[in-house]
From TrEMBL:
Modified residues (4-aspartylphosphate): D71
Keywords, ordered alphabetically: Chemotaxis, Cytoplasm, Hydrolase, Phosphoprotein
Post-translational modification note: Phosphorylated by CheA. Phosphorylation of the N-terminal regulatory domain activates the methylesterase activity.
Compositional bias ranges of the Low complexity kind: 154-164
Organism: Stappia indica
Active site feature: S218, H246, D342
GO molecular function: phosphorelay response regulator activity; protein-glutamate methylesterase activity; protein-glutamine glutaminase activity
Annotated spans, Disordered: 147-177
Intracellular or extracellular location(s): Cytoplasm
Record protein name field: Protein-glutamate methylesterase/protein-glutamine glutaminase
Pfam families: CheB_methylest, Response_reg
Amino acid sequence: MIASSSAPAPRDGARADCIRVMVVDDSVVIRGLLSRWVEADPALELVASHRNGKLAVDDIERSNPDVVVLDIEMPEMDGLTALPLMLRKKRDLVVVMASTLTRRNAEVSLRALSLGAQDYVPKPESTSEVTTSIDFRRELIDKVKALGQRRRGSSAAGGRMMRAQTAAGRTASQTPASAAPAGYTRLAAGAAAQAAAPAIRTRAYSSARPRIVAIGSSTGGPQALQQLFTDIGTAIREVPVVVTQHMPPTFTAILAEHIAKAAMRPAKEADNGEVLKPGHIYVAPGGLHMIVDKDGGQVVARLTDAPPVNFCKPAVDPLFDSVAKVYGSATLAVVLTGMGHDGAAGVRTIAAGGGSVIAQDEATSVVWGMPGAAAQTGMCCEILPITRIGPKISGLLNGGPR
């Protein structure tokens, strides 16, 4: 059944700082359910709901949402077609794709990430499952809030920077040219715009050359992994790489295919018991934890159906813990963008074993949850923007300076 679009009236008592949400789905049942979930959260405000992409695109400027939850398969205009049109109208719009777990939808969702969507949420197969799925509701609302808050924070920071630059410019214009060193205005603006933040403690890299690279990521991870593996190039030819990305089944198989193209190295979902080979990339399958283990004189991947860790399956902590146990000081781990704190406990384990950890910085993370939690342990060796992580890994693997 297809229902007409609706533009809800402002909620009584809605605050100006609420995250403004638009829901776009052709199913009247799903659209109504997601809308009620949004309305039930005091941090969110439902500003519109639409049955197809065209109506949503036409309404972006009027409704002015912070976040759009966008279905993929819809009549008249589907989500993938609507996405770039929405972003053209509002460049800082956060779009979360919502799709069922088919291979086609998984491929479209990952394609949407490359076109500017921030994240995706896999919908259960049937309407009844959507209605009863506590995990789906939690994941959807958590992502909308985290990404919406990030967008609001970025906008506010941009405004503060502009005001600081204006103030710094006025100060500089009042300073005699002979007394103002080159770059004064820029430096003053930067100082005024950024409040002094407590320094994050780091530790020295291990003196041992890495024999494995272990990577953990979540929200924003597919984009970050694409960048990282493009930058690493052939540097991983002598070590295996293991990756845990928070993703459901089907998605992880397609992610591995994308990684293989970016790295120009073999990449696949790991099989239980397979020997880890140098130059190969192994991705934890959705719905299973991946760890590494010794089997005689070889290191193998193990897949386990243990309970979720940090609400995640696969989770990063079990992988990091196992890598530290097998490789010790020859471990090199990376924590990329993602919600929550998965991986932070594993970072401590790796550091205790003498290994090295790099965390992605806040500026280039879609959400600085996981890498932020890792950084706050004080056990990371560096906190780097995503464009510098690949080259750093390459340098470490090639015996470069630490």
